[in-house]
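Need a sequence for this fold. Nothing fancy.
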């Protein structure tokens, strides 16, 4: 795990404008920005699947197979990355609907991202 859970545990006393929100998922913008900066510093211009970025954020990748997209933590995390792309340009979605397998071997969809 590259990123420790302090990204996940930061204060919940921030203003709503300080968060990316999708479905039930609410993540401080600073956490996402810090994560992307760290990934860029560590790996340079490497491309990442949504699941790879999520695994770095959480410390692992968890399959939420069977969850409807609106309730899927993984799908909502991808939507948050899209919000970050539009707001900051720190990340760019370069390919949608990339089929991969989760840690259990189940087929899953991801996007391919490049950190700028």
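Here you go.
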């Amino acid at each position: 795990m590259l990123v420790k859970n302090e990204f996940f545990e930061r204060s919940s006393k921030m203003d709503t404008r300080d968060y990316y929100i999708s479905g039930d998922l609410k993540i401080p913008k600073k956490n996402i920005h810090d994560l992307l900066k760290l990934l860029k510093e560590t790996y340079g211009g490497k491309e990442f699947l949504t699941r790879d970025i999520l695994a770095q954020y959480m410390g692992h990748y968890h399959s939420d197979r069977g969850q409807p997209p609106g309730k899927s933590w993984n799908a909502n995390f991808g939507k948050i990355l899209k919000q970050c792309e539009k707001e900051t340009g720190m990340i760019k979605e370069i390919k949608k609907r990339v089929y991969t397998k989760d840690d259990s071997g189940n087929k899953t969809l991801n996007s391919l991202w490049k950190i700028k």
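For context: Residues 73-88 form the longest helix (16 residues).
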